[in-house]
Amino acid sequence: MESGYRKRLFDTYNLTHSSYINHNEQQIYRWSKRYIAHNYLSKMSNYDSESARILEIGCGRGYFLAGLQTFGYKKKLGVDLSPGDVEKAKVFAPGNGFLCQD
Which pTM was predicted? Predict the structure, then answer.
């Protein structure tokens, strides 16, 4: 059973913990694409971008999956505990799957 405190924490996480950090989504998105290109693409080159299935646990607002989409990756799923972040991810990175799950 989920505690009341835990539910309140993750229901309001976006407002209480991260909203002041993530105020410029386009800037974070541009940084994410550079980060992916530098740190991940060479390691993922053995995978076909059309058929590779990617799961991001703790996806937040979806910047990483949105960045992967620009590099041609199609089958992506993001999971996060924060309902607010999942809703923002759905708006910011449409075409990706997002779930609010523990």
Answer: 0.75
